[in-house]
Amino acid sequence: METDGVSAEVLYPTLGLRLFAMEDAECQEACFEIANDWMIDYCKVTPGRLIGIPMISLYNLKSAITELERCKKAGMVGCLIWQVPPEHLPFTSDYYDPFWEAAAAMNMPVNLHILTGFNYSRFERKGLDTYKTAVNDKVNDAANTLFDLLFTGVLSRFPKLKLVYVENECAWLPFYTHEWDKYWLRFKTKVPLPFMKKLPGEYVNEQVYATFFSDPCGGQLMNRYGQDTFMWSNDYPHAASPWPHSRKVIAEELGHLPKDVLRKVVRENVIKLYDLKIDGINN
């Protein structure tokens, strides 16, 4: 972090991502609790610089809320859930409502990360699928889950709920929200959605965040979209990380932005979202 000029990092799991596809609910809960304990202990080394995101199993919502409360008390922020749920627990149902309500009440933003849940990430990828899943399927998963949460009224029912799409990049969001707005206006009489009191894109602008580490197209759009909800990430220590050249990449891909916008995207948005206490760090 010192080498790369990074003041603080919000930490997500690596190997733990695949555990979201476990079908044994009790085993998954036990694995996540162990991982969360490890993260809590790890972040104690430098409070305010290392900030952990807990993994939450959603097979048993009572247990999920209890673990969320425990992790918040231990200093963790937000939570990580599966981005693609199992077929018998779709995001289109009201099954998750108690959890959405609890997360919103605790001010714990709900993070949806690539490679989590019941999607392509469960299987070994070979040949052309290596490329297709890394791009096409990844974005499709993000767009489809956001559609389900938006068009079944989750964001309207829980206006204080914050969603974070992690490592899906960000340029897709303005395109999808524009299309959803356009077709909602076109079809809202034919297919009424009484809970939709404003444009779909307005809910997204107010409640949905996205992280990215290299998205030049998204960077060009940030003069008009995402100034308050997009958040740069260095993805360290993964192979895609620009470390130790993050400042160079930021200058190349985001250097055209006004300084106030750039500061939001690389620093202020994440501080505000997670209510981080890192004001003493000047990097």
Count of extended strands: 7
Shape: globular
Q: Structural class of the secondary structure composition?
A: alpha/beta
The major beta sheet can be summarized as: 5 strands, parallel
Low-confidence stretches: none
Count up the domains. Answer: 1
- In CATH terms, what is the fold-level topology? TIM Barrel
Look at the structure and name the CATH superfamily: Metal-dependent hydrolases
The value of Rg in angstroms is 18 Å
What is the CATH-assigned architecture?
A: Alpha-Beta Barrel
Number of H- or I-type helical stretches: 10
CATH class: Alpha Beta
Q: In percent, how much strand structure appears in the residues?
A: 5-15%
Series of H and E elements: EHEHEHEHHEHHEHEHH
Describe the structure.
By secondary structure, the chain is an alpha/beta fold. A five-stranded parallel β-sheet has the order 3-4-5-6-7. A two-stranded parallel sheet has the order 1-2. Helices cover 43% and strands 9% of the residues. The protein is globular, with a radius of gyration of 18 Å. Helix 1 (25-43) packs parallel to helix 2 and helix 2 (61-73) packs parallel to helix 3. The chain is built from ten helices and seven strands. It has helices at residues 25-43, 61-73, 97-105, 129-151, 154-157, 172-187, 200-207, 216-221, 246-254, 259-274; strands at residues 9-11, 50-52, 79-81, 110-113, 163-166, 208-212, 230-232. The model has no long low-confidence stretch (mean pLDDT 95). It has a single domain, classed as Alpha-Beta Barrel (TIM Barrel), CATH 3.20.20.140. Helix 3 (97-105) links the parallel strand 3 and strand 4.
